[in-house]
Design brief:
Residues 26-40 have a biased composition (Basic and acidic residues). Residues 1-58 are annotated as: Disordered. It is a single chain. By secondary structure, the chain is mainly alpha-helical. It has a domain at 22-58. It is 36% helix and 0% strand. It has helices at 25-37, 45-52. The two termini are 23 Å apart.
């Protein structure tokens, strides 16, 4: 996958028709675990974006 030069927090919002959905409990747990493994108290934007790519049930 190609790495973007622009960080996600500086990119404009996509204008697609797809509405965002809140993370499922499993996705939230995965983001929390990833943050904890990296020494953070709570998940940041990158952790949440990573978790959003996971299947909703896992």
């Amino acid at each position: 996958m190609r790495q973007s030069q622009i960080p996600p927090w500086k990119k404009p919002s996509p204008n697609g028709k797809k509405k965002s959905q809140p993370l499922s409990e499993a996705q939230k747990d995965a983001a929390r675990q990833r943050a904890e493994e990296n020494g953070r108290r709570y998940p940041n934007l990158v952790d949440n974006m990573w978790a959003a790519k996971l299947p909703r049930g896992s």
